[in-house]
Design goal:
Layout (H helix, E strand, L loop, with lengths): L1 H40 L5 H15 L2 H13 L5 H14 L1 H13 L2 H16 L4 H26 L5 H7 L7 H18 L2 H13 L5 H14 L1 H7 L5 H23 L1 H11 L5 H20 L3 H11 L25 H31 L6 H29 L5 H36 L8 H20 L8 H30 L4 H29 L3
Helix pairs in contact: 1-2, 1-7, 1-17, 2-4, 3-4, 3-12, 3-13, 3-17, 4-13, 4-15, 4-16, 5-10, 5-15, 6-7, 9-10, 9-11, 10-11, 11-13, 11-15, 12-13, 13-15, 13-16, 14-15, 17-18, 17-19, 17-20, 18-19, 19-22, 20-21, 20-22, 21-22
Length: 549
């Protein structure tokens, strides 16, 4: 019974630690999330810059899993290529060592509760501030304090070394390579279970500090945590494109290769750490081991980034592209312990941009059909029908995706953008419906041989040209904030379209009075009405972009 209670206490302490880490990470991401996106968006092809970027972002958000999941999403969105992602992943491994130093220096050399409570107290006024920015920083500080409270509980609940514990660990230590493999696997398993190499590192440091693990066994567990942390990137790559899967595979290969290399020279490497670190403080030795381990691996493999990319491309070859339009599916990325809402926003932006291109293509196809009334255009009609169904699926999937995003811990800008994108997606779907209705009118005109008056197509060209211009105007500014002056351009186009529509309706009335075909003129009016509606939808998108950040 005592053992069960002790296990529950350890699990509870770990829960407090992980909760603190989650709150801290979400707070810093909301406070600096836009900046992190901007940094990743402007990565150059320089591998050293990429490594530095990965280090900095991971040191800030205190999670290599969060960084690598972010990288997988950026690769999936086409904002990073595979070579750039490799450097960032290498840097993320170095950045995660910062947590080990914080825990090692502050967690075991000071009374943690004395440090944690004042930090929570300092963050509380910020958290209740009306300013969203200050509120986010307050959340970060409170999370930081809770993290150290969890570490304090972990220290107190973790059993101390005694004769019973020595007899339990005895069979697994002092067996050379076998012991090394056992503790590497143990470290990997713990990290997979808790979904956090930082939490795994804290557990290992606490066990070593309490005398439960000798330095070599604890160091092996630290190596294992580098393998276990790849699980989040692997899960995030499910349902993504081929390059995102490759980026996740790079993370696995790099971390496993690094463990293999250091395992070959484990004892000399451990001896080097003992020489560098003065004294016998085991937690400092472990933090140094973790840091040197990741820095050395990066130095070894950074010269082989192109080769690593080619290897992964060979392991995951490009899939054969099927012809036709398939079923649309958008997978929401959830990184479990470390939630990274900004990466889902970027994925949504990419899909909104894609949907804009789809409806623009639909209209271009329609104009070709309209200009060739006597030519059989069955293939084009079929394509627009397929694209209309595809746009309906996009609207449904993107909306569900954005609803999931709205449940995340987004900052104010993120919430505004989600709201704007929901409106934009609905308007884009309406444009798709109008294009579909226009093609149905053309199909009916062809099958029933409904005549239009002689200059009908010629009269429609100005409004068609204006619609094309409006669609391009929206496409080129999608996912961007629209200022007042640019919005005025949208109103000018909408007013021009309304003026043309009124003139065309007057011409229809004149034609009917002069004995024109009634069915043809009514069909002509329907075409004008749908074209004018597309202009209305474009204006609505422009208005939604006005509140976009």
């Amino acid at each position: 019974m005592i053992i069960i209670i002790n296990i529950m206490e350890i699990v509870g302490a770990l829960g407090v630690f992980l909760f603190g880490m989650k709150i801290m990470s979400e707070g810093i991401q909301k406070a600096a999330g836009d900046g992190l996106q901007s940094v990743l968006n402007h990565i150059t092809s320089n591998r050293f810059v990429a490594v530095l970027t990965g280090f900095m972002i991971t040191a800030i958000v205190q999670s290599s899993s969060a960084t690598t999941v972010m990288v997988v999403s950026f690769v999936n969105a086409g904002l990073l290529n595979l070579t750039q992602s490799i450097g960032i992943i290498m840097g993320a491994n170095i950045g995660t060592t910062v947590t080990g130093w914080i825990v090692s220096i502050l967690g075991f050399k000071f009374k943690i509760s004395a440090l944690a409570l004042p930090i929570i107290g300092l963050g509380l006024p910020f958290y209740f501030s009306k300013s969203m920015k200050r509120k986010d920083w307050g959340e970060f500080m409170i999370g930081f304090g809770i993290l150290f409270l969890g570490l304090s509980f972990l220290k107190e609940t973790m059993p101390k070394l005694d004769a019973q514990m020595v007899s339990f660990l005895g069979p697994y230590t002092g067996r050379g390579t076998l012991s090394l493999v056992i503790f590497i696997l143990a470290g990997a398993l713990i990290t997979i279970i808790v979904h956090s190499s930082s939490a795994s590192m804290a557990i290992t440091l606490t066990m070593a500090y309490n005398g439960l693990l000798p330095l070599d066994a604890a160091a092996a567990m630290v190596m294992g945590s580098n393998i276990g942390t790849t699980i989040d990137a692997m899960l995030a790559s499910i349902g993504t494109n081929i390059n995102a899967k490759r980026a996740a595979r790079v993370h696995i290969l790099f971390n496993c290769a690094g463990v293999f290399v250091i395992a070959l020279f484990f004892n000399p490497f451990l001896a080097l750490v003992r020489i560098i670190v003065p004294g016998d403080e085991i937690t400092t030795n472990l933090a140094m081991f973790h840091t040197l381990f990741n820095i050395l691996n990066t130095l070894i493999f950074i010269g082989f980034v192109p080769q690593i990319a080619k290897l992964v491309e060979a392991l995951i070859p490009s899939e054969t592209v099927e012809t036709g339009i398939g079923k649309y599916k958008l997978n929401y990325i959830d990184s479990t312990i470390q939630n990274v809402p900004e990466i889902n926003i970027i994925e949504a932006q990419k899909e909104v941009s894609h949907m804009t291109k789809v409806v623009e293509d639909m209209f271009i196809i329609y104009t070709e059909v309209l200009k060739h009334p006597k030519k059989k255009m069955g293939a084009q009609v079929k394509e627009i029908k397929a694209l209309e169904d595809f746009s309906d699926q996009m609207q449904e999937e993107i909306t569900k995706f954005l609803i999931s995003c709205s449940g995340d811990s987004l900052n104010q800008n993120g919430r505004n953008n989600v709201s704007s994108m929901m409106r934009i997606v609905n308007e884009l779907e309406s444009i798709g419906d109008s294009c579909y209705n226009l093609i149905l009118l053309s199909e009916r005109r062809f099958k029933k041989d409904i005549p239009l008056h002689d200059k009908a197509v010629e009269e429609l060209l100005p409004i068609i040209t204006l619609v094309q211009k409006f669609l391009f105007f929206i496409k080129s500014r999608i996912n961007e904030h629209m200022d007042k002056e640019t919005l005025k351009e949208a109103y000018v186009m909408e007013n021009k379209m309304e003026s043309i529509q009124k003139n065309l309706k007057k011409e229809v009335r004149k034609n009917l009075k002069s004995g024109a075909d009634i069915k043809g003129e009514l069909l002509y009016l329907d075409i004008v009405r749908h074209l004018e509606q597309i202009g209305d939808y474009c204006l609505n998108i422009a208005q939604a972009l006005r509140i976009y950040n």
